[in-house]
Amino acid sequence: MSASPVSLDQAPFQNSFADALRADPSRELQPRQVPGYHYSPVTPTAVRDPHLLAWSEELAAELGLSRPPTRGPAVEVLAGNRVLPSMRPFAARYGGHQFGNWAGQLGDGRAMGLGELPAPDGRAWEIQLKGAGPTPYSRRADGRAVLRSSLREFLCSEAMHHLGVPTTRALSLVGTGEPVVRDMFYDGNPRPEPGAVVARVAPSFVRFGNFQILAAHGETEQLRELTDYVIGRFFPELGPPSADVYVRFFGDVCRRTAVMVAHWMTVGFVHGVMNTDNMSILGLTIDYGPYGWLEPYQPDWTPNTTDFGTHRYAFGQQPRVALWNLMMLAQALSPLVADVQALRPALDEYVRVFTATRNAQLRRKLGLTRQASVDDAPLLDSLLEALAAAEVDMTVFFRRLAHRVPALLTRPAEADEALEALLTAAAYPESAAEGLRQLREWLGRYLLRLRQEPADAAGIGAGMLAANPKYVLRNYLAAQAIEAAEAGDLAPLNRLFEVLKRPFDEQPEHEELAAKRPEWAREKPGSATLSCSS
Ligand code: AMP
Ligand code: MG
Question: Name one GO molecular function term (predicted).
């Protein structure tokens, strides 16, 4: 299978999206409406000094690419300074509901698809540059991205992949050598920041919003073309298009979205901006902006300052927001199906798949494998309630539990003491005594249930360690890596990137990266709170 790796600037690109869909005939870069078309052909705007800051070896291996030197032709491609003859760069036209309101045309305002790279394993991956300059969809903004948000996207997309969460990937982080001015907290303090470009990678970056904009404008033929393209390329098993196939396609999108959100809820990921333009049609986590990782288990928590008023996109809201977004997608697809009601069962299926997937993952995290004879759902629901009442660190709680379970099962006399140590390790100052009591009581019930498991104690513990990450991209760790990178020190970024590739491994030499959030980081801007400024 594996041909020897090639340098990106030698790679042959294909252009299925650009070939299959309607291109805007205008080359005008001016912000404008683009009715009737799926995308606008664009050219990236070159930057002063493109240099490689970070590179994903794992993804590159999947793509059959060799690591480029810090400067040179491949990095010029990754910055948008060089467009290969086989590429037809484009900015996609999409719309979306932002915070519940229809926002009209949005589109790739700073992202550009370069085309698809056929990988050695036969799959094709779209490579998209984020921050490569203005497009007709840039509205009032500059088409650029700052290092801080680009580094966060680069780190988190790869970390999510290694946690087993469906996600877009990131191949490279390239510094541009040009400043980008941003008012980070929208408080009248704009300052120049280092600019960067991330090369993102996914089978496709099509979003719910690509369908929505066409439906909103009554562009039914274009809507059908986009849907047929997506089905033909990514859901070929559904067969040739028909009203029935569109219904089944929507069902698949509902199921994939349910699986993605179930993962978020069991690793403690808060997307932060679940607008419909940030929802992938392939059920991938997409558009890493003001996301965050849950530290104290607080369902109402969001890191996104823009959402502090309503908490619409808080951790605990995500399952129902995804459902609402799917309803908006159903509305957009309705011109293609004879009877809109036919789309309704898929929404019920979303709820069923979400609950089943989340519960299966929670059972794995808890070492519960015995099937059918017991219904664990009430035990799982009461765990989530107790975690919310106790506000302990989710990641530390599960990881420590995994470590302690073998001893709890074999030496029940020491159980009380062990559980106290577990709760102390996971607790934050805000953790409430009453909540901790609830969690202690839950642990007692859990141990009784665990004793019904057929596997031996060591086997259960090992299974749990493989299901509960030790290392996640804690908000303050990302902030520290950014601070260092902005000062020219890439070591913290590289270390974090390496450690997060093996989140379930002990890696004792990196123990401090598994520590729960220190008190100084509690309210720190850029750590506990983030804006959409990027
Ligand atoms: P987001 O909130 O990042 O999902 O972005 C919402 C919309 O704003 C999308 O259409 C983006 O392409 C656009 N956008 C965000 N930042 C920029 C920027 N710096 N330049 C141009 N467009 C942007
Ligand atoms: Mg977006």
Answer: ATP binding
Report the range of poorest mean pLDDT among 1-10, 208-217, 478-487: 1-10
Give me the pLDDT at residue 2, please: 56
* CA-based radius of gyration for the chain: 24
Ligand 1 near 195 CB (within 6 A): no
Phi, psi of 38 (to 5 degrees): -90, -25
Task: Let me know if 277 is a catalytic residue.
Answer: yes
Between CA 173 and CA 199 the distance in angstroms is 7
Per-residue confidence at 1, pLDDT binned at 50, 70, 90?
very low
> For ligand 1, is residue 273 a contact (CB within 6 Å)?
yes
Model-level pTM?
0.97
**CA distances, 454 to each of 367, 370, 371 (Å):** 11, 7, 11
End-to-end CA distance of the chain: 40
3-state SS class at 71: coil
**In terms of Cα–Cα distance, which of 89, 32, 88, 35 is closest to 223?**
35
Residue type, position 248, single letter: R
**Spans of all domains in the chain:** 8-206, 209-363, 374-465, 475-521
> What is the pLDDT averaged over residues 122-140?
97
Yes or no: say if 78 and 11 are a contact pair by the CB < 8 Å rule: no
